[in-house]
Amino acid sequence: MSHPVSDDVDSSLALRLAKPFVGEGPWHTEEVGDGNLNVVYRVTGSSGSVVVKHAPPYLRVVGDTWPLTQDRIRIESQTLQLHGQLAPGRGPLLLAVDLEHAAIVLEDLVHHEVWRTSLVNGRHVEGIAEQIGRYCAQTLLGTSDLVMDPARRKALTAQFVNPELCSITEELVFTAPYIDAESNRYDPAAAGIAAALRADLPMRRAAVQLLWEFRTRREALVHGDLHTGSIMVADGDARVIDPEFAFFGPMAYDTGNVVANLAFAAMRHQELGNIAFADRVTDYAHEFWLALTDEVRILWPPTQPWDHIFLATLLKDTGRYAATELVRRIVGLAHVIDVDSLDDGPRLQVQHRAVAGARSLALGPPVRTLDDLWNRMTTKETPA
Ligand code: SR1
Ligand code: MG
User: Fold this and answer.
1) Is the dihedral of CA 117, 127, 258, 250 positive or negative?
2) pTM across the whole model
3) What is the pLDDT of residues 51-71, one digit of tens each?
């Protein structure tokens, strides 16, 4: 479905869209957010603030030399609605949708911060991992053939076709890191890691197999970019934002992203010597998986006695997709501050460890327990 859209939403249009929700003036409009794709404004009035998010017809960080469909705002708004029905309270409130201007108005989560920021700074936030585990089970199972009415699901798979954003992931996650692609970015000190990956035929084979599965396994409406920067947190309250990459794809793509990004936080704190917080992050990974399995069992249809096989397969594939996320954040275009903000020595350590962990997950024996998955990503080799 395509809509005629205007190229740019300037701050005055953001103000017009926001006015019904923020009370009387004087109003204040500021551009906030440093996302890769979209332009985000905060508009404040006498009774509070809202966020106006606009998808320009190009990738924000690159500019108009990288055109990009504005249909992503429709995908985002409709995913927020559907996932919001399945996992109530886990997204920001969607206040208004203006597809003509490729803009949406959202609740301003003023008291939340990005989970990655809390993790990087070693701040514990209660209850988040468990809520994200339940959110994954509710949204993934809830949009799968296991739970959703098959006719409705078939209609939804057509509604959520998202070729341009999927193609970004196909390129940046599964392809570029394993070849000499122009988009790749890495430290000079990590050039050896990148060269070794390019020569690593088994890893390339594993990545293209995961690419095939990413393209063909239409299991559920996945978020499609569920890293710790897509989760806002306050004590006891997790909110999942930015589902513009959503499409019907493999469930383990979401869960793999969650655990890989937690692993970056754990490795960061291990290298910094903050062992207590690194152990906290280990607990988060376990809480996430425990809540997910518990919620899957709650939602599981009693007529399908194979939940143990489903969960074993999901765990194994979570490890495989975590592998590609670990690699792409080290040598690909989009990095993570958990690693990039470290000093040279610890940064190189984490870079080596992430790629070694990824190799173990992608090429080693199938993962059978969460402990095994987590240890392969985060256990530090002790020097001989
Ligand atoms: C060019 S877009 C780069 C990355 O930003 C998004 O958050 C996705 O992770 C994408 O891969
Ligand atoms: Mg995003």
Assistant:
1) negative
2) 0.96
3) 999 999 999 888 889 899 999
